Amino acid sequence: MTAKSIIVTALFSLTLLPLQSQKIEVERLPDLNVPRAGHQLFFVNGELVVAGGHTNGFVPTPTAEYLKDGEWHVMQMVYNHDFAASVILKNGKVLFLGGTEQPIGIGQTFLAELYDPTTHIFDGFGIMERKRTLASALELDSGQVVVSGNWYHDDGIEVFDGQKRFTYIKDVADQRCAPHIFRISKDDALMVGFTDARGDTLFSAVADRLRGDTIHIPLLESWLPLSIQSHRDEESFIGDASKDEYIYLMPVQNKSGQVAIAKVANGMFSLLPTDGPVPMQCQGTDIFYSGHIVVDRKTGRAYMMGSAYYIRTMPEKESPLYILCIDFAKAVSGQPAPLTLYYTDPLPAVPDCPPVVTDEGDLVIAGGLTGVSNFTPSQAVYLLHLGIPLATSAQGRNYWLWVLLPVAIIGLLLGILLLRRRRTHGDCPPCEQRSGLHGDCPPETPDLPQDSPNNELMQRIQGLMEGQRLYTNVDLKVSDFAVLLGTNSRYVSDCIKASEGCTFSQFVNKYRLEHAKRLLRERPDMKLSSIWAEAGFASEQSFHRTFKQDTGLTPRDWKDRG
Question: Which of 47, 113, 49 is nearest to 84 (CA)?
């Protein structure tokens, strides 16, 4: 084994180090006056507020509460808003839209009202153009609010004018329940979703737009948005609207169940580079993530919550909560975002609405489901203490980290010593050995022998490429593979170079080219413009150039020759 092989092996061992994890303390805050689920939770005007939802017996409650001086104060809403949409507007007020019409989650409503946190008064002012349950809403820079999504009723896009009027804009290509809505410019937004209006999984890479035609999202062919209910996508915003940077974080999941973090930047979807894969287990227990990310812009962190049981199949027992911390600020500066997994002692209720971030960087959850029943929601409120430096969480690593770390360091030192010895041995400098100028010099041993970790990694790279057709993602980068494989970009590139003799881009284009040829053979009526887009090429020029370099023919000539 060469010195470089030893170094690579040691580095490979380091990439297998377990994710940081840490148990956190949970503080029980005063209970709500009304047990509730399907509600809205938010901080506004310095106060924690819960509103709407349903209470015992799965009956909608037209009440809200705010926490002040260690006590929850009940307020009367104008309408019921169970499984409704909400938006915290730039003017400080909160807009509530729709919800179920009857108990047990039946029907939809047109109803809209505003909450003024300075007066604690609700104002029922009008109705939407379409009655909705489990809709989503997002405010544009203009103050208009885009509304889309529905449950067991027709979906469509409408806009609230910021005053008291709704205007229906158009139908949608895909019917969606609780879709994600992301701004892609000052006056435009797009919608994607995990489930259709009947609750079935929506296998679609199509995004609807407020203005303009639908667009195709290659990433969504391999990764689906995670299932969610009530949420506010503005809480996942990490961009800067003043610079026209509309960037959001969204959890996604592939067919094998692995979760990753997608970055949506001005309508372009890609995987966020992270320093390891999103953990799917903790202490031998599976983690089921909720599907929404909340951002703490002050610290540059984002959080996604999970539990030990899928929220709709949870047995009658307590579950720990898991909080995945994504240090996205480092990814913005070009580094992979560090991940840290926090977990709690088992709690009796699982929240069915996203948490909110406090001014101190902690998380608050309130209400939620107990057991498998929507008929007995919780009134518990918890404060999760997360406002601590990430560095302190290193104590949560598995014990065998400390065994691997010295081994890796010893391997690196040994590799350096061997490398120095090779360079000082004999009269032939290493550069001349490699160029073959001295016939007496033995050829250098290959950097990565067949029994090295490189061989295993290459098999995993090929498995991901072929099994999930990642090459169809026009934005695919080597860092995406590094995230999925839990290693680093340099190691992936070196592995492909050693095994295939080409760069990462050339490697991906080989797959794209074969996919395009297959489409040309099997779908002769398909337009060339559709073929290169579906195969993952960024442009028609790139497709033609790559095709001709490989075959010596244009795609049309190759197709005509059969």
Answer: 113
